[in-house]
Design a protein that fits this description.
about 40% helix; ParA family protein; alpha/beta; about 15% strand; binds adenosine-5'-diphosphate; binds magnesium ion; globular
Amino acid sequence: ADDLPKPESTRVLTISNQKGGVGKTTTAVNLAAALARQGAKVLVIDLDPQGNASTALGVEHHAEISSVYDVIVGDVPLGEVVQRSPEFGELYCVPATIHLAGAEIELVSMVAREQRLRRALDLHLRELDDPYDYVFIDCPPSLGLLTINAFVAAREVLIPIQCEYYALEGLSQLLKNIKLIEKHLNPDLTVSTILLTMYDGRTNLANQVAQDVRDHFPNEVLKTLIPRSVRVSEAPSYGQSVVSYDLNSAGSLSYLEAAAEIARRGAPLTGR
Ligand code: ADP
Ligand code: MG
């Protein structure tokens, strides 16, 4: 495949949806791998105590490993906990370990508790000679302080939506929260991208939901849909993205195409 256009500066996207099981982690890992496969330098920050993104990218994240917890709660420089994914290309991961489960509570009493990830990431990005093209932050399924840290560290929000009946229900709450963050903590934050996931084109319901989301968010929704596919769900158990597990599967091809769309659309315009 031809290399994709590179962004002028690092694009930081947080993958957010307070619903669990909608494909956040799958999307973070596979978009990152798809972009790396097409020539980009990419970092995934695993901000979910479950560490599923770390597992899927094949990086170590047992309790003794330095992780995003040490960056956010301790003052360990982010660059010290970055690991290279064995996948391929320039693909890196800041792992999450079980310690992160306590971070929500520990953060409550900390100074600048909403800004900790942003500061650590900004410092890291400034010290790099060869900058990342993309940073993806994989959020836990809640709107706690970890997710707020992700919203403050990012410029863009990418919302994965599962094509099912309740999909739109939680969305207005999520958008309200993003507006609040934009107003009080991060004026640069924009919902740049919505990705329809686990799509099963055989059902009328999936088609209906997909159309509804497109009608509401014509500029944000990617043309590419991610189909429901067994290969996508199998890949993490091999410590792999679907792109390296089965390059020519429907799931892999759709993530490669979604990644290309994101690259071609470019960063959202600044200034308001
Ligand atoms: P979240 O991070 O939002 O909780 P995950 O990415 O972990 O969601 O996905 C939830 C489950 O759905 C996982 O078991 C994952 O393997 C599976 N899954 C995600 N996307 C797909 C897909 N396109 N096809 C089949 N299974 C999928
Ligand atoms: Mg997840």
